[in-house]
Write a structure and sequence with these properties.
The structure holds 2 protein chains of 2 kinds. Chain A has strands spanning 4-5, 10-14, 19-25, 32-38, 45-51, 56-59, 62-67, 72-77, 86-93, 101-102, 106-111. In chain A, a hairpin with a 7-residue loop joins strand 9 and strand 10. By secondary structure, chain A is mainly β. Chain A has no helices and 11 strands. In chain A, strands 2, 4, 5, 9, 10 and 11 form a 6-stranded mixed sheet that branches. A 5-stranded antiparallel sheet of chain A has the order 1-3-8-7-6, with no helix packed on it. Chain B is mainly beta. The chains are: A mainly beta, B mainly beta. The interface between A and B is medium-sized, with 26 and 26 residues.
Chain lengths: 112, 118
């Protein structure tokens, strides 16, 4: 049973527009959420995170929103740039010694 | 160089062979992890380790063996490789060593090993 779901395998956005990547989770014990970005032939790199005590966290062009009641989070990239083209993984943590759980990823293509 | 390195970068082997993927980190992170990435499955945890000589199974441990005799190394062995183990393998480490990890602890990944089992 998938605990972290990224239902859109891919997304195409024009340069300069907003990219919105979505993630849903089922485990109510998750209290910390992270987004990772992965370029081809490289390992994933940490992008941004949010604690369950917040509903928004912003870092430059990247903002993550958390809706706990809906068990949903989203990553907004504004404005989108061609260099943002990558696979984005959503991950969740239940704290303690439990490992991160990753979604399947969403491939973002930003078209110039 | 500082960081987390994996070797080899690419590996081709045959079914039934033993293969060991290496992972080395220079940060002295307590926690280390092995993930595999497959199309349609994302990143799945194989094994992880909280410290030297402490390892635990992840989501997909069957067919794999790990060891951690030193903090900086976390090799992954496929004892008898199968075609279903063709994948990209990522090693990662976590900067927490304060008695636990998970919350607020982000992972640092290596560049991966692309393994093909023929």
């Amino acid at each position: 049973d998938q605990q972290v779901k990224q239902n859109s395998p891919s997304l195409s956005v024009q340069e300069g527009r907003i990219s919105i990547l979505n993630c849903d989770y089922t485990n109510s014990m998750f209290d910390y959420f992270l987004w990772y970005k992965k370029y081809p032939a490289e390992g994933p790199t940490f992008l941004i995170s949010i604690s369950s005590i917040k509903d928004k966290n912003e870092d430059g062009r990247f903002t993550v929103f958390l809706n706990k009641s809906a068990k949903h989070l989203s990553l907004h990239i504004v404005p989108s740039q061609p260099g943002d083209s990558a696979v984005y993984f959503c991950a969740a943590s239940a704290g303690g010694n439990t490992p991160l759980v990753f979604g399947k990823g969403t491939r973002l293509s930003v078209i110039a | 160089d500082a960081g987390i390195t994996q070797s080899p970068r690419y590996k081709i082997t045959e079914t039934g062979r033993q293969v060991t993927l290496m992972c080395h980190q220079t940060w002295s992170h307590s926690y280390m992890f092995w993930y595999r990435q497959d199309l349609g499955h994302g990143l799945r945890l194989i094994y992880y380790s909280a410290a030297a000589d402490i390892t635990d199974k992840g989501e997909v441990p069957d067919g794999y063996v790990v060891s951690r005799s030193k903090t900086e190394n976390f090799p992954l062995t496929l004892e008898s490789a199968t075609r279903s183990q063709t994948s990209v393998y990522f090693c990662a480490s976590s900067e927490s060593d304060a008695g636990g990890w998970g919350t607020n602890e982000k992972l640092f990944f290596g560049s991966g090993t692309q393994l093909s089992v023929l």
